[in-house]
Amino acid sequence: MSESAFRKMVTCVLLFLVPSSLFGADSNAAMLYIKGTAWVNGTNVPRASSAIFSGDLLQTRSDTIANINTSGSSITVQNDSLVQYEGSLLKVEHGGVTISTSKGMGTSAGGVKITPVASAWTEFNVTDVDGLVRIAARKGDLTITDGNETVVLAQGQETTRQETSDDSNNKDQDGKDKKKKDKRRVPGAAPAAGGGILNTPVAVGVGAAAIGGVTAWVLIESNKAASPSAP
Questions:
Q1: DSSP H helical segments within the chain, as ranges?
Q2: How are beta strands 89-101 and 106-109 bridged, if at all?
Q3: CATH code for 28-171+179-199?
Q4: What is the rounded distance in angstroms from the CA atom of residue 126 to the CA atom of residue 137?
Q5: pTM score, two decimals?
Q6: Residues in Cβ contact with 78 at an 8 Å cutoff, skipping those fewer than 6 apart
Q7: Per-block average pLDDT, block size 10, for the chain (231 residues)?
C-alpha cells in the first residue's frame, strides 16, 4: 500500500471515530433513585440508584416512587407513571411528576408543553391520566402551550387541558385515540432506547481507545517509511 493511500485510509477512520466519541460524551446524564420497582427502557433497575441518560424511558410500578436529580433540577416521578427523560425536558406519557428547578426544566404531556416563566426557582406538578392533563404552579409562574394558545399560569393556580392530537394518524380504524392505548407499556417489553449506544460512557472509552490505537499505528508506519532501508 502506498503512503498516500495509507494516510487517506487512516484519515477516514479518524473522521468516523472522533464524532462518535464526542456524541457519546454529550449524554446529559442524571442520577436516578428508586424506592420500589422500576424499569428503564423495559429493563428492571437492579439498584436503588443508577444513571439515567437523555432519551431513556422510565416506568414506575403502582408502589414505586422515583427521583431524578440533575444540575439545578429535581424530579419526583409518581407511582404508576411512564416518563421519558430528555435532559432539559421531561416527557410525561402517563402518570404524574413534580419538578423543582432553577434551570428552566420543562415538561410535555399529551401535546401540552409546560415551562417556567423565569430562571428563578420554580416548582410545579403535572399529571396526564385518562386523556386529561392537570397542571399546578406551586412556586413561580408557568408558561403553558397547548397548540391553540400560550398562556401564563400564575403561582398558586391550577388548570387542566385535554390531550391534543396532531392529525388523523393518531386514530385507529374505530376512530379511537391510539395514544391512549399505548399509555401503559408492559414491563420488560423494552421500548426503544433514546440516544443510542454512542450516548454511553462505554462508547466514549471505546472511541478514545480506538483513536489512540490508530494514532500509534500512524506514527509507527510513518517512522518505518522515513527510516532508510536495511542493507
A1: 3-25, 178-181, 201-226
A2: parallel
A3: 2.60.120.1440
A4: 9
A5: 0.64
A6: 60, 65, 95, 96, 97, 98, 127
A7: 54 46 56 95 91 96 95 96 95 97 96 95 97 97 94 97 62 45 44 41 49 53 52 46
